[in-house]
C-alpha cells in the first residue's frame, strides 16, 4: 500500500473565497501537522475581494494564524506552474454546482457544504456567532481528515474517504 507524498495539497473552493474556504484553508494549515498544505480559491471572487473581517476575527479568537490569507480566483490553481492538488473540496453549494477548471493530475474531489456565515440581515454579533459555529463545524471534519491513517490518504482511497467524512 502506498502512502501519500508529503504534504498532501488540498484546495477549498467557494464562490467568493471570502468566508468558508478561507476558514478551511487557515484551519487545515494550522492542524495539518506537516501532512497537509491547504489553499483556497473562489469561482468568481469580486473585484478587490478580501477575506471577511468576521472570519479573520473568528480565526484569531481561535488562535489560528491569518497571515497571508487572501481571496483569489480558482484560475490561479489551474494555471501552469500552480501547485498540484491531491484533493479539492467545495464548501458551498454554489461552487459545487459550477463547471470547474481542468485540474492537472485528476485530484480527488469532495463536497462539504456549509451555510454562508456572512449571509442574512442579522446583527454583527449574530454574524460573528455564525462564523464561530462554521469554524467549529469545519474544524470537526478536518480533525477527522488529519487523523486518517496514510493508507486512507493514498490517491486510490482519497476520494471515497473525503466524501464520506461525516458532517458534525
From TrEMBL:
Keywords: Arsenical resistance, Oxidoreductase. Residues 8-148 form the Phosphotyrosine protein phosphatase I domain. GO terms for molecular function: arsenate reductase (thioredoxin) activity. SUPFAM superfamilies: Phosphotyrosine protein phosphatases I. This is Arsenate reductase ArsC. Its EC number is 1.20.4.4. The keyword Oxidoreductase applies. Pfam families: LMWPc. The keyword Oxidoreductase applies.
Amino acid at each position: 500500500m502506498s502512502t501519500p507524498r508529503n504534504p498532501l495539497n488540498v484546495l477549498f473552493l467557494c464562490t467568493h473565497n471570502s468566508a468558508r474556504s478561507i476558514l478551511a484553508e487557515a484551519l487545515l494549515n494550522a492542524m495539518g501537522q506537516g501532512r497537509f498544505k491547504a489553499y483556497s480559491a473562489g469561482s468568481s471572487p469580486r473585484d478587490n475581494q478580501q477575506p471577511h473581517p468576521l472570519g479573520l476575527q473568528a480565526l484569531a479568537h481561535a488562535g489560528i494564524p491569518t497571515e497571508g490569507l487572501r481571496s483569489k480566483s480558482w484560475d490561479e490553481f489551474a494555471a501552469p506552474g500552480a501547485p498540484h492538488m491531491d484533493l479539492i473540496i467545495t464548501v458551498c453549494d454554489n461552487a459545487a454546482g459550477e463547471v470547474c477548471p481542468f485540474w492537472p493530475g485528476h485530484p480527488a474531489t469532495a463536497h462539504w457544504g456549509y451555510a454562508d456565515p456572512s449571509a442574512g440581515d442579522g446583527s454583527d454579533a449574530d454574524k460573528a456567532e455564525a462564523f464561530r459555529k462554521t469554524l467549529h463545524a469545519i474544524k470537526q471534519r478536518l480533525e477527522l481528515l488529519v487523523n486518517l491513517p496514510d493508507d486512507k490518504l493514498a490517491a486510490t482511497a482519497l476520494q471515497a474517504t473525503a466524501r464520506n467524512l461525516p458532517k458534525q
